[in-house]
Specification:
The complex is a heterodimer of chains A (about 220) and B (about 100). Chain A is mainly α and about 220 residues long. Chain A has helices at about 1-15, 20-35, 40-50, 55-65, 70-80, 85-95, 100-105, 110-120, 130-155, 165-180, 185-200, 205-220. The longest helix of chain A has 26 residues, at about 130-155. Classes of the chains: A mainly alpha (about 220), B mainly alpha (about 100).
C-alpha cells in the first residue's frame, strides 16, 4: 500500500514537472553558452550547474564575472535569502523524513519544484518526498544535460533569439493563482505586487525577489 | 579567487540557505511563524511573476510582457486556476501584443 502510494506520488511529480522541462532546457542551453562566452571552460560551466543548481545565481555570476568575486558573492547571498522561508515551509510539509532525504531534497530546492510541491501539498498529495524527488529529477537532469549542450555550442548560439523571458513569470503566476485560498493569502498577493514594483525601483536586481517576497509575507501574514 | 573557488563559494552559500531549516524535522513550527509560512509561497510566486513581467530587462517598462500578465491572470481565473491555462493564455496574449504593436 505504502509502495503504491509512493510510486503514484512519484508519477504525479514527473507528470506535473515535465511541462516545465522545455523552458528549463532552453534556459540551460543559454546559460551554458553564455558561461563559455564569458570565459568559463565548458567543464566549469557544467560544474556550476552541477553544484550551484540555481539559474538566477548562475546567470548573475556570468553577468558580474568581469566585476570581480565580491559582487558575485553578494548577489548570490541576496538571491539565496529567499531559500530560508522556502526551507522552513518545505521542512514543515515533509514531517519526519530522514536526514538523507532532507539533504537530497534541499540540494534541488529551486523555485519551480518548491512551487509544484506546495501546490501538491495543498491538494493532499500523500507522499511529498516522492513527489518532490521526481520533480527534482526532471529539473536537475534537464538543467545539467542542457548546460552541457549550451557549453558545447558556446559562441555559436545567439541567446537573444530564444524568447525565454515570458514563460517563467507565467508559470509563477499560475502557481500563485492555484494556491490562493485565505484572506491573508489574497492580501499578501496584492502586497507582493506593490512590493515587487517598489523593489524594482529601489533595490539592486539581486535583492529584488528576496526583499519584496519577505516584506510582503511579513505584512500579509498579519492580515486576518 | 579562481573561478573554481568562486563556484565552490556560491555552492556553499546557496546550499546552506536551502538546508537551513531542513537539517532537522520541523513538526511544530511556532504559531507566530506558521502564518508567515502560510503566505510566503504566494508572496514569492507573485513577486517572481511581477519582476519577470513588469521589468523583463531589469527596469520598469511597458512591453508585450505586461499583456502576457493580463492574459495570464484572465486564463488563471477563467480556467479554474490551472497553471497550464495561465501559461497558454499569457503566451497567447504576449504574441498577440507583439503582432499588434
Amino acid at each position: 500500500m505504502i509502495a503504491t502510494t509512493t510510486s503514484a506520488s512519484f508519477r504525479r511529480g514527473l507528470r506535473d514537472t515535465l511541462p516545465l522541462a522545455p523552458p528549463i532546457g532552453l534556459f540551460g542551453i543559454v546559460f551554458g553558452a553564455l558561461a563559455v562566452q564569458a570565459g568559463l571552460s565548458p567543464l566549469l560551466a557544467v560544474l556550476c550547474s552541477l553544484l550551484v543548481v540555481s539559474g538566477s545565481a548562475q546567470m548573475t555570476m556570468v553577468a558580474l564575472l568581469a566585476s570581480g568575486t565580491g559582487p558575485v558573492l553578494l548577489a548570490t547571498t541576496g538571491l539565496a535569502l529567499r531559500h530560508l522561508p522556502m526551507s522552513a515551509t518545505l521542512s514543515e510539509m515533509l514531517g519526519d523524513a530522514p536526514l538523507r532525504r532532507r539533504l537530497q531534497l534541499a540540494w534541488v530546492l529551486v523555485d519551480e519544484s518548491f512551487g509544484l510541491t506546495v501546490v501538491a501539498a495543498n491538494r493532499g498529495e500523500p507522499d511529498l518526498v516522492a513527489f518532490k524527488t521526481a520533480s527534482d529529477l526532471v529539473l536537475y537532469s534537464t538543467w545539467l544535460t542542457t548546460t552541457v549542450v549550451g557549453a558545447l555550442l558556446g559562441g555559436r548560439l545567439d541567446s537573444g533569439m530564444l524568447e525565454l523571458g515570458i514563460i517563467f513569470p507565467l508559470v509563477f503566476l499560475g502557481l500563485a493563482a492555484s494556491v490562493l485560498r485565505t484572506r491573508s493569502q489574497w492580501a499578501t498577493a496584492v502586497l507582493a505586487v506593490l512590493a515587487a514594483l517598489v523593489a524594482i525601483v529601489v533595490l539592486p536586481p539581486a535583492w529584488q525577489v528576496s526583499g519584496a517576497a519577505i516584506a510582503a509575507a511579513i505584512i500579509g501574514s498579519r492580515v486576518r | 579567487m579562481s573561478t573554481f573557488a568562486l563556484i565552490v563559494a556560491m555552492t556553499v552559500i546557496t546550499f546552506a540557505s536551502r538546508l537551513s531549516f531542513m537539517l532537522r524535522p520541523v513538526t511544530s513550527v511556532k504559531v507566530k511563524n506558521s502564518s508567515f509560512l502560510e503566505v510566503f509561497p504566494v508572496a514569492l510566486f507573485v513577486v517572481l511573476a511581477v519582476v519577470g513581467l513588469a521589468a523583463p530587462a531589469g527596469e520598469l517598462e511597458v512591453t508585450p510582457a505586461l499583456m502576457a500578465g493580463v492574459g495570464g491572470v484572465a486564463g488563471a481565473f477563467l480556467f479554474k486556476r490551472s497553471v497550464l491555462a495561465t501559461v497558454l493564455a499569457g503566451a497567447a496574449a504576449y504574441w498577440l501584443a507583439r503582432l499588434l504593436f
